[in-house]
Amino acid sequence: MAVAAYASLVSLTHVLDNVHYRAQLRRLHVDIKLIESLQEGVNSLLDILEVNHRSKSQKAENLWRQISEVNLEIEEIFDSHVVSQLQKESQGESSDLGARSFDEDLDTMIQKVDCIKRELSMVEEVVVGQQTRASVPAGGSSTAASAVGKNIIVGLEEHVIKITGELARYEDKLQIIPIVGMGGIGKTTLAKRVYEDKYVIERFDVRIWLTISQEYSVDEILQGLINDGKVERHGKNSDGLGEILRKKLYGRRYLIVMDDIWTLQAWDDLRRFFPDNGNGSRIIMTTRLSHVAGSLGSHDPYPMTFLDANTSWSLFCQIVFDEENCSHRELEQIGRVIVRNCRGLPLQITVIGGLLAKSDMKKEYWESVAENVSSFGNASNDEHCLNILLLSYNNLPIYLKPCFLYMRAFPEDSEIHVATLIRFWVDEGFITTKEDKSLEELAMEYLKDLVDRNLLCLHKHYAVTGKIETYSIHDLLRDLCISVSKKENFLCSTRIQNISLVKEGERTNPFTLGVITPSASHGNPPVCCDNKVTYSHMKGLRLVKVIDEVGVAHDSLVQHTKLRCVSLPMYKPPMFMFSSTLHLLWNLQTLLFPHLPSVVLPTEIWKLPQLRIIDFKDVVLPKPPNVRDEGKDFFILKNLQSLTTARNFELTDEILGRIPNLKEIRIKYDKSMKEWNTNLCNLSRLHKLERLTVVMTLQNIGFPNSLKFLFLMSCRIPWSGMSMVGSLPNLEVLMLWYTAKGSEWNPTEGEFLRLKRLFIHGSDLVDWRADQYHYPVLEILGLSNLPSLEEIPLGVGDIPTLCTILLSNCSESVVDSAYLILEEQKSMGNDILKIHVSDDSEDEDEDEDYESV
To answer: Do 282 and 194 touch, CB atoms closer than 8 A?
Structure first.
């Protein structure tokens, strides 16, 4: 229960900050001293919990449960009073009358928190006296790199050679190669290593990787096979999709990897769509089930075996010390005991290694881990593995546990996007506030910490930029999340609502997001099973409903006004309007409607000081209301981090003053705004802005020195004007889409000192004069749709960091110059540089390019 209590306390601190801010600006009638007293009490509970969360005594468990219940009660009281005052204010009524009731309720809550603190102080004394070595937390962190980042494949070399040999063996008939072994033994790692082998890449015309979940969909599998692993809608049934796949594979030598097959039925549903071209095509399948592997085809299953003692030790050392041997001799004997009790299972060695790599390398702590691992000696393989993983979970610091357990919310075998995961953690309120860092920066640190502990792993990164795109969690670790979450009663309320209004093919009507307050006679709304316990003590919830054009509310989309994220993940959404009651979602942090057509937000958007992300395909942000005449100060959206895509955005002093901490903005102007005075020079006032995209403008742009990413599209800036861009001291990525005009570009030495990636798409550039001194740390150069460019300057090849040149729709002379650079670099011993040439006749979608860099 401690994790649920901790997560609810951290979440409550964000609510208290919101209320305190509103009260300071006289936008809320409440005694600020009572709010501050409650904040002090909640922070004290957090301090106690951080020290004593490992206590398993019944009294402690009861107190953890009380904390969760009181926190929910406090949030409900805040929601009730805040929404009531906001409604009265919007209706022109006085909200002073409710202030006394608000203060009385707060006083009651302060007394409850103080009571729990007194009881916890007695538990604290017991815990300190009874603490055992097994519960000693891992202190500090080592400098060892995680296995994830190093792509360690210790013990797999021999397997890779054998499987690669099977792929190359002279056998024209289509072969199915099953790889079988228990969870965590390295089947997927082996298959991935073979899949990415240089020889395999060159041998097969088509390679497709797809993970099969226990609850699979034939249509989705086929869609993934058709789209090289990506599931996209085709509007066809299985037979239609299967025919598309057959045509894609017909006559070509292909390699398909189907990872984690659970049933023979999955293969039976798909086998007819794979043509036997008689050219040595292969299908690799991984499975935990021997009977499935033995029935998949004529090829004998390839068994994955446990690592031997020497290989296990080598893997352990590389994970913990980033070396082949133990660099702490006093720890070697203990380490070998730990490794021996991991029984040669790579996942166990990797997870335990990640735990110890984050420790302070003290003998006492290692001994406590060894004792715990040894105690699992008589357990079955499955139970033993779970206990090993549980040991690593138990030793996580309390602030990481909610983030790790939240991984159960994602479906099995999910590719989890970095930005999505961080946004969810922040929206759920899991990240504690620190003055010197944003919540997003802290969440990224949490993510890296979990990766370093090998509890999450890299799933995919962008081939072009090398930037990490998605992470994943091993099935066994996800099972652990589910098991622990149930015991902890964790994740029993949701603050994130995905609105799905219509099914594909249905008629779409206009919809409005509105807020309704039911009378007490309505009782509680229908909620999902996970939320019944949470909402059982709440009365008269304030509800968010989606209302259609004739005023009908859709009960299936009910959520409470404590909502923090509203998302519409639809590709073809209906018309959607935001009502003037939007501000009643007073804790709202994220509006995520990336596929929605043009939307004009109400002025109430400026009454949501918790907003962190506004993400639309095309949104018009209104001018802020003038509230000084009412005797109140206006809100500053001090938490707003990202604003995309703002159309015809006027950067006035009034607006910029309200978004001082913005880190990302994407601005788009239509033709009617090209000549308007939109004050783009004022962008230089956003001193924390790191990512800027501007589409269609002829104005001079003021670039803040904080910029790291710049994307200019159809802005028509002469090449000579690029000096103002080159002088930006922190710029790392520059993308020019139909922007730079003129036939010559002569950059100046001393500019672009930190530029790592340069992409130019669409230009009449002919002569480009540059060398290693103009882009001294450039890593990736991308050129596309440059028909007039004569060549890439040969001096560019001398840039020591350059590793990739990407060319698309460029002249033959440009391609020739790229290969000339490659040959020259190879002759000097440079094997890092790679050239990629494509002939895509269609322009790349700027949205995809923007997101992928």
So the answer is: no
